[in-house]
Input
Amino acid sequence: MLRTIAEGVHTHQSELLANNAVVVQGDDGVLVVDPGLTEAELVCLANDLDGQPVVAGFATHPDWDHVLWHPALGPAPRYSTARCAARMSEFRAGPNWRTSAAEGLPPEIADETPLDLFGLLTALPEDATEIPWAGTEVRIIEHPAHAPGHAALLIPERGVLVAGDMLSDVLVPNLDELNETNDPIGEYLLGLRLLEAVAGDVEVAVPGHGSPCGPAELRDRFEQDRAYVLALREGRVPADRRVGPTAAPGWEWTTDISIEQVRRLAERAARS
Ligand SMILES: [Zn+2]
Output
């Protein structure tokens, strides 16, 4: 079921992980961002488009739950940042990419998640500032924090920020720790600053997971994510409503993620 969050902007949420796909109305069809997750949910989303063609796709970042697609959504180009597309094509070039991708799926939906079109993305130029399509301006805000090539989307005329895996009410910040040379904490704080800098006129923010929110809660979420990251920097599991007994039902594992992040950051510090 599509839920309208602003004029010409709708979301479609998955049952597991509460992934939000975003549909934006264009001149001759729609833009679909991060569609997911299962076969049935992707077909449901395609049916909800009511015969309108998908003229463009966008993947906010190179994680499995943001690079899915389904034949029912048609053959439109699926854009992403150059970094995100490079990462996915590298992944698909691996000898056993399908097995690796399947192993990364949550067991609950491993048999129901279509992988044929997994990660087939079209890189936008490094300096691209908006999605090339016939429709309202959709600005690309590429920033470090959660994953290489992560981009949020700002739709100024609709007052919408599509945040990717940032600013969630259920999922805690997940630092980008894929290599040993970056500064995951500093990058996350920078990512939050870059998003905050463009969020002044945002009426609705849509996180990759969880509930969309209005301006007041968005300010709280920036503060909450910053506090979370600063607690990690101090080597402690954050006191955060998304962690521990106050975690949303089904999201209790964010506590383990938090403990792990503290542990890995300590290990990293010990090595350097
Ligand atoms: Zn995600």
About this structure: The first helix runs from residue 39 to 48. Residues 63, 65-66, 165, 208-209 surround zinc ion (CB under 6 Å). Residues 3-271 form a domain with the Metallo-beta-lactamase; Chain A fold (CATH 3.60.15.10). The chain has a mean pLDDT of 96.
